[in-house]
Amino acid sequence: MNIHSTAVHAGDRKRAGEGAHKRRDYTPSTTPIHLASTYFYDTAETVDKIFAHEEHGYSYLRYDNPTVAALEEVVNALEGGHGTIACASGMAALHLALHAVLLDRPKRILCASQLYGATINMLTKVMEPFGTITTFVDICDLAAVEQQLAEIKPAVLLMETVSNPTLRVADLDALGRLCRAANCVLMVDNTFATPMLVRPMEHGAHVVVHSGTKYFGGHGDVMAGLVTYDAEHEPLVRQLSRTYGPVIGPFEAYLTMRGIKTFPLRMERQCENAAKLAAWLRQDPRVERVIYLDDPAHPDRAVIDRLFAPGLSGAMVSFTIRGAEKADVFRFMDALKMVVPATSLGDVHTLCLYPLIASHRDVPPKQRARLGITDNLVRFSLGIEGPADIIADISQAMG
Ligand SMILES: Cc1ncc(COP(=O)(O)O)c(C=O)c1O
User: Which of 130, 91, 136 lies closest to 107 in space, CA to CA?
Assistant: First the structure.
């Protein structure tokens, strides 16, 4: 072979037992990164059967890939779905999921008024111009939800298990029942709670979406999204994914799967740290209001106790700094030495976010006030550091 041909072909496309893969009986102990974008088989007939879904096999990275499939399998097992598709980001996953359920239904969405800002932007600025109508509702007000389901007859109800940053928890069981009675798909973004705390499909959700960038990845080094669906929605989600191509790359799939191996351990520690921080904040006179899900007076106490895994109240804590204005909050954030004042959540390191300038920047002040997002509210995503170090850092930053 000419050196150009050798450089391109030597070493590649060997089967077990050939070339560098001399042994046939080895199995990597963890899923490797399969970077190939295409796959070939011994006969054209096999390729034909794979394309026709008559035989299982990988054909093209936009359709499937062994590393991506392994990530999908583990997330599906964690969420208890029929199947899962991994996407390049949480937003890509939400977009895919919404379009899939709306494909053969009326283009009407009922959605929780407290949602991640980019999700609201996607609904109002991207999907509405394409003819989708979105109506917002207080998801904790079951009578209002029932009324809207009857009035606007939406195809899908979109909500987050735990709202951001005020940590409200809606009654998934009741919403599941209402949606099924109204022939409406219940789609739940479970990013904040994760399947460690709640498995929405056990409470009536048809589709569960995740930003895998958060607790699943967990190390602040990867972006991923997941759509877990029931049997009814498999054909639509799969078909649309193959056409849209929102798929995750194999390297990111590998990193996310690697993160997932320690996700339950991290989550336990993060929840413990959150409970310790909330307890400390409650007794500090510089703090006005503490929002954490272990609060006996939490407005959704009974729902949390029914839905959440015992002893785990999540790893997000929001609080208001007494008398602080925007400049004081800026000073507080700048004074943090270990806690990272950066946008995101779910990482091994504790993160602090100021909703006013980040997640709720585009929300009009009146609406922010209605949602309880005051100018002195900060949100913490607890990491796995020593709890005393986290508390000491926050304490010194409050001055
Ligand atoms: C609840 C929630 N859903 C979805 C997303 C979007 O995820 P990604 O940033 O991976 O696209 C985020 C991002 O912060 C989020 O907090």
Answer: 130
CB 363 within 8 A of CB 239: no
Mean pLDDT of the chain: 95
Q: What distance in angstroms lies between residue 25's CA and the mean position of ligand 1's atoms?
A: 41
Ligand 1 centroid–CA 211 distance in Å is 5
Omega within 30 of 0 (cis) for the link into 165: yes
CA of 388 to the centre of ligand 1 (A): 29
Strand partners, 185: 156
CA distance 74 to 77: 5
Helix (H, G, I), strand (E, B) or coil at 317: strand
How would residue 363 be classed by pLDDT, with cut points 50, 70 and 90? Answer: confident
- 391: confidence class by pLDDT, cuts 50, 70, 90: very high
Count of residues for the chain?
Answer: 399
For residue 360, the model assigns a pLDDT of 86
Contacts 24+ apart (CB under 8 A), 392-395: 393/336, 393/337, 393/338, 393/339, 394/277, 394/281, 394/336, 394/339, 395/284
CATH class of segment(s) 64-257: alpha beta
- Domain 263-398: state its class: alpha beta
54 Cβ contact list (under 8 Å, min separation 6): none
Q: Is 237 in the pocket of ligand 1 (CB under 6 A)?
A: no
Residue nearest to atom 10 of ligand 1 (CA): 90
Ligand 1 center from residue 114 Cα (angstroms): 13
The model's confidence at residue 26, banded by pLDDT at 50, 70 and 90, is confident
CA 123 to ligand 1 center in whole angstroms: 14
For atom 13 of ligand 1, the residue with the nearest CA is 211
Give pLDDT, residue 258. Answer: 96
Where are the domains positioned within the chain? 1-60, 64-257, 263-398
Query: pLDDT tens for residues 272-320?
Result: 999 999 999 999 999 999 999 999 999 999 999 999 999 999 999 999 9
Name the β-bridge partners of 136: 111
Verify whether ligand 1 is closer than 6 Å to residue 355 (CB atom). Answer: no
Residue 381 CB–ligand 1 contact under 6 Å? no
Say if residue 27's pLDDT is above 90.
no
Question: Would the CB of 189 count as within 6 Å of ligand 1?
Answer: yes
Query: Which three-class secondary structure state does DSSP give residue 396?
Result: helix
Under a CB-based contact definition with an 8 Å cutoff, are residues 253 and 213 in contact? no
